[in-house]
Amino acid sequence: MSGFHIGFVEEEDEGGERAGAIVIGDFEEGFLALTAFWDADAYRRQWLEGARRFAEGAERSCFVTQAGEPGIDDFAELWTVYRRGAEAVFRNRHIHFDSPDAEFSYEHLYDCIPGHAATNEDGLAISEWRVAADAIARFVRDHGG
Hints:
A hairpin with an 8-residue loop joins strand 4 and strand 5 (75-84). The protein is built from 2 helices and 7 strands. The relative contact order is 0.20. Helix content is 17%, strand content 36%. A 4-stranded antiparallel beta sheet has the order 4-5-6-7. It is globular and about 40 Å long. The two termini are 23 Å apart. By secondary structure, it is α+β, with helices and mostly antiparallel strands.
């Protein structure tokens, strides 16, 4: 279990998307962030805000990696993070805007994070990645927080 980082890996937008990566301990995954609805600075602000609120003691927070525009795009993608003792537990989540149970709002982003559950509605274990919770506080310190 090592650190946490989220950021863009390319400085230039291409075709309305920008490549980024999230690192959670030994796990790393790339993503393509839509930049029509949110620009790169909006993503960076949200990432720092999400990290700051978690570092300051919030039980859950999130990091948006694809800010789709409701009514224009099909979905948004984010990584939710839950506090479990000294660990931060991450899950990848897609919000499909046309789903009848999609209660989602960018204005109330952190209120839209569901509670932590060990299994999904079918009883299957939900994939998650863990890192020491203080890795998120280090991210905040390293990125101007």
